[in-house]
């Protein structure tokens, strides 16, 4: 089984290692600074 970035990030939220707000901030940083965009508005939408 190969996990993607979204899978790993959601798992970190579920385990309490990241909050949804922190994960969304990382997602926004990826989009703004690293040209890495996800097709979700918020990780909260996936929980």
Which tags fit this structure?
mainly alpha, 0% strand, globular, 2 helices, single chain, 47 residues
Structure class: mainly alpha
Helical percentage: 40-55%
Into which percentage range does the β-strand content fall? under 5%
Domain count: 1
Given the C-alpha coordinates, what overall shape results? globular
As an assembly, this protein is single chain
Kindly describe this structure.
With 47 residues, the protein is mostly helical. The chain has one domain. Helices cover 51% and strands 0% of the residues. The protein contains two helices and no strands. The model has no long low-confidence stretch (mean pLDDT 95).
Give a short overview.
By secondary structure, the chain is mainly α. It has one domain (5-46).
Strand and helix map with partners:
Blueprint lengths: L4 H10 L5 H14 L14
């Amino acid at each position: 089984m190969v996990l993607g970035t979204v899978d790993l990030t959601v798992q970190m939220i579920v385990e309490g290692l990241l909050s949804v707000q922190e994960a969304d901030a990382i997602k926004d940083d990826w989009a703004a600074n690293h040209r890495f965009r996800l097709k979700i508005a918020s990780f909260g939408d996936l929980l």
